Amino acid sequence: MTTTTPPLPVRTQLSMLLRLLAIQGSWNYETLIGTGIGFCVEPALRLLPGGRDGEAYRAALARQTQYFNAHPYLAAVAVGALGRAELDGEPAHQIERYRRALCSPLGSLGDRLVWSAWLPFCSIVALALFAWGAAPLLIVLGFLALYNAGHLWLLVWGLRTGWRDGLRVAPSLGTRLLRQGPTAISRAGAALGGLVLPVVFLRIAGGDANDKLVLAFVLFAALIAAALLLRLHGRLQGWKAGLIVLSLVAIYSAVRS
Amino acid sequence: MTPADLLPLVLLGAVIGFDTVSFPQAMLARPIVAATLGGALVGSAMLGALCGAILECFALETLPVGASRYPEWGSASVVGGAMVGDVHAATAGALIIAVIIALAGAWLGGWSMVQLRSLNARRVRRRQDAIARGDGRVIRNLHLQGLLSDFVRGAALTAVLLAIALPLRDLSERASQGLTLSVGRPLLGMIALAVAVSAVWKHFASVPYVRPIIGFALAAGIAWFFVA
């Protein structure tokens, strides 16, 4: 059986996409991004019989504003799929059950793809540009363009895929990109990170003004410190340790002068 | 830094703090962006970028995952970048004090986000009946209130950090006298590198074949370090 996707008006699509950029605007410990899902799906719900004053609109919006948790970018899939399900007139209990079932995969897929792979990779690219002596504007624009190409693509893909597949969206979450993307990006990030971080150190340490041999000793000391941080994983965060060490150094230096 | 310089910084801190979670999450709030912009606003994008790169090494360690508590790097990095950019020289004391302010500010920013999320939860509880009725106006207002509150949070945080940072410029000058550039910058680089390398390992090492990749790449990076 083939089903045709009812068209979503361009204006509604754009409104939903714009709202998706603000999906976490009312993030809270009660409903997490539930209010955000309701806020994003609302333009589609206006197409329900009776429009904004209709009973169908109010019932659907009340359903869509309940507790929801997912990665903010992949929540676009949920917004599309749930909007489509409401407009298709799927039974309320089925929508609610599907809504609950979507939370976990959209959270874990997004965390693996974006927070654990894409963001650190783009961050390392920015550090690589810094290490190569790129102009500040190029570092900023290069990072933002690269990161947001992925960000915006995911939002558009998610909304379209969710809308196209409705309550049958699950197989689309098994695409090659979502399955293998995190692994490939992580490998690229690991390779680039290992390659550029010693040169990032050189730039931060002021390689022109300092003896290279002394800096090499400091570099190896840093690698030992990194190994120590890894051993203390879960008990001490590096940025907190850095804050403590730097505060002690600043106080000592100020007192000594 | 005059009061006329402070207002644009507070506005930039608000916009960047707003980007962290609320809108548009374009990663303007990453330190390498925020500190560079902060530095540029007071006249030295280059020094802002240097401070941003140091802070980015720290930020690599923390991931902005949903309900977990994490530092809010954006507004704090604007202040850090502006502090270094304002002295127009990468003195050891200025860099170290700017990084300290930014790290402590990021922690304070993370705390402020937890408070905002609790406030949003109270607002949701208060309007639970209207939400259950599917009142579109109430739901839209709840969301817009959350967005506005986050913007105000970013502005207030930046203003507080600037109020703390400006008097500390005297301390940074004293610290610079007691700490030469040849010691201060390698020390900062060492700490930043240690955190960044451990972060890269933590994020990626669970992926098959990544451990040898990191090993070989680090060896190549160290070779590059010697020829650079």
Secondary-structure blueprint:
The complex is a heterodimer of chains A (257) and B (228).
Chain A: H1 10-20, H2 34-45, H3 55-64, H4 75-87, H5 92-131, H6 136-165, H7 176-205, H8 212-231, H9 238-256
Helix pairs in contact in A: 1-2, 2-3, 2-4, 4-5, 4-6, 5-6, 5-7
Chain B: H1 3-21, H2 31-41, H3 45-59, H4 73-87, H5 92-126, H6 128-132, H7 136-165, H8 169-178, H9 181-204, H10 210-227
Describe what this molecule looks like in 3D.
The complex is a heterodimer of chains A (about 260) and B (about 230). Chain A has helices spanning about 10-20, 35-45, 55-65, 75-85, 90-130, 135-165, 175-205, 210-230, 240-255. The longest helix of chain A has about 40 residues, at about 90-130. Chain A is built from 9 helices and no strands. By secondary structure, chain A is mainly alpha-helical. With about 230 residues, chain B is mostly helical. The model of chain B has no long low-confidence stretch (mean pLDDT about 90). Chain B has helices spanning about 5-20, 30-40, 45-60, 75-85, 90-125, 130, 135-165, 170-180, 180-205, 210-225. Chain B contains 10 helices and no strands. Chain B is flat and about 65 Å long.
Question: Descriptors for this entry?
Answer:
heterodimer; A: 257 residues; 9 helices; B: 228 residues; mainly alpha; 0% strand; flat
Describe what is shown at a glance:
Chain A has 257 residues and is mainly alpha-helical.
Described by the principal axes of the CA atoms, the overall outline of chain A is elongated
* Weakly predicted, low-confidence segments of chain B: none
Radius of gyration of chain A: 24 Å
Poorly predicted runs of chain A are none
Q: Biggest interface and which pair forms it? A: A-B, 109 and 118 residues
Percent of residues in helices of chain B: over 70%
Overall mean pLDDT of chain B: 92
Separation, N- and C-terminal Cα atoms of chain B: 36 Å
**Cα gyration radius of chain B (Å):** 20 Å
Strand/helix succession of chain A: HHHHHHHHH
Strand content of chain B: under 5%
Helix-strand sequence of chain B: HHHHHHHHHH
Largest sheet report of chain B: none
- Seen as an oligomer or otherwise, the chain set is heterodimer
